[in-house]
Design brief:
This protein is of the alpha/beta class. The protein contains 17 helices and 14 strands. It is globular and about 65 Å long.
Amino acid sequence: MVAVDLLAHFPPGAEPRPAQARLLAALGAAIGEGDGAEGPRVFIVEAPPGIGKSHLALTVARWSGDAYLLTSQKLLQDQYEHEFGDALQLVKGRENYLCERYAPPARVTTTHGLCRRPRAPACLCPYARAKLAALNGPIFCTNTAYFLTLRQWQREQLRRRRVLVVDEAHNLEAQLVRVFTVAFAPDQMKEWFGGPLPRLDSADEYRILFEDHVSRLDMERLLIDDRLASLRPPGLVDDDLLSYPLTPQELALLVQRDLLESALARLHFFLDAEDTEWVVRYPTEIGAALELVPLTVSAMAPALLWDAAELVVLSTAFMGRPEAMAGYFGLEPEAVRAFASESPFPVEQRLIEYRPVGALSKATLAELEPALFAEVAAILAAHPAEKGQPNSGDRIDRLEEWEAMKVGIPRDDASNTVLTHEDGRVRVVEEIARKMGNLREDLRGHLRVTLGRDEDTEAG
């Protein structure tokens, strides 16, 4: 078979680095070798920080002309859009777009837009426009959580494509698990079950318990629709509904409907998936949430991932042994090929600054967040010519503009300063370092900041 020339599809205006060229050549040869093969074909590309994985991902997507390109976080989608612009079509969940039917200064997301009324006419709101463009475009770019949700609950919307590229794929298994996890917070237990659920020993016991409730909850879901229909403004034709604001009662019912609909979808899956082993997580403290978590995703991965495209490329810094990954995701070992690159940074330039700040918990969050942000700002300021990647041992919410200014980042730079969380990691966007100093093209080093958990202090 003839090797695929992936390098010819490298993003215009960028010069491929030697490591990028080597990886693309190896991947192109492997794609060519197996052209016409049946069954899933999965390629793992391991590239340490500094290689430029986003350029690799976009190159493969551009070569295919028909790709899904997934990122682990919505923030990384923004980076793709900022760097590559119209080369891809980006869409996020409804909560990320504002309904245009509400006049400023109202800021209502399309999750609660006027078209969400029962039997309301469809409208081309910002979310609908973005989704339509992504569905019809050559590169459908979204975050992994949104893609997996669509694949599981609205699969008919996502046709099979030539290539599926998953960037930052090291946490793919955890994201798959979250799609199916049944979770009930204390307030949901009280509303839907009358109080805290009992602590049972096994998932099978919970399956028996929920079988007695699911029909009632299905009926409650229908009653919410009936209540919403009864609140529909009388005497208005369809188009008029898109100019008549939702009442507080309608908004409250829409929230209830969405929460219950999501919970029921996972609950029905749990009840039907008797062959899947589930783990019960229900801490003993008062106010704890109940979670039923699938122990493995090997049975779910084919329908959600491997059937979505002819070829799948998983890109990350480190993924693990191919045969182990095949087992995790329900693949035959021979269906998985792996390619790796050495770090572009000499060991002596891989500086790690370890600055323990404290034990993060809900109780200490308000006290420790400013201290953590101050440490991040201090490290970045001390290394203005280097690439910084602070990591935290637990989840940190976004660092808003005012918080950035509070720790000394200038106002003009503060709007570009964002911390985001994913599986306990905190990544400072490369833009911060670029704004705070003269970021060199060779990106000479790495910086890390860690924050321990209550139960164990872990290095980032």
